[in-house]
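Hello forum,

I keep getting stuck at the same step: I have a sequence, I want structure tokens, and every attempt I make locally crashes halfway through. Rather than fight my setup again tonight, could one of you with a working pipeline run this one for me? It's a single chain of 246 residues.
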Amino acid sequence: MKIDSFEEIFRDVKRVLVVMAHPDDMELICGGTVARLIATGRKVRSVVMTNGGKGMQNRIDVTENDFGKIRVGEQMAAGKALGIPDDENFNLNIPDGELEPSIENIEKIAFYIRQFKPDIVISQNPKEILVRFSDSSRWVNHRDHRNAGLVTWDAVYPYSRDRGFFPKHFGREGLAPHIVNYILFSDAYSDSSVKYFDVTSFIDKRKNALLQYKSSLSEQEVNDLMDEIKDGDGYFEPLGYTDQLF
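Reply #2:
Ran it on my machine without issues. Output:
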């Protein structure tokens, strides 16, 4: 049985910012943890960077633009299923597959960090290209995922912390520099920093959130995804963890 690190990591946490590349990434990676955070009184904000419009794969009955709108609508419904208020659930509508680690995109996330003032940020793994879940299961870490991680880590340091970056935030927007001390990141199964979060009591919420993505996930696929995090009689979501940054 895996050890639950929820109290160890989130004991003093009040605000959590989740930054992901695509609709459904948050629900797959940490949906149960998000539901648990909200149920225990923490505030959670979700920022998804792309609209997921190219996730239609080989379908020819829908355009990328229309599919992106469908995906964003599903993101909002899934967030609601986990308990995220509509006004804390954002999509930046960057075209799917075109997310770049640019200064422009770093500023977008730095803005949300300065505005929301999170104690911890959850995002994606920027360093692993081939992810190994087990000896028999591996996949390529999507370029948008890697770039979402790069953008988020750069936004955490130094861009949201140091006043010299994006000074318009302080005048027009009335914001202030903000220090984030901790980051949790996905696809960290083989990383020595991996922590496990027991979401057994929130597994129905996680499943319900994933079922909102009717355009891309069948019920059988959702059930298979639930089985991937099952350990004995419980369900555990794995995330990498940075020790205190500053």
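The CA atoms of residues 123 and 234 lie 24 Å apart. If your local run keeps crashing, start a new thread with the error log.
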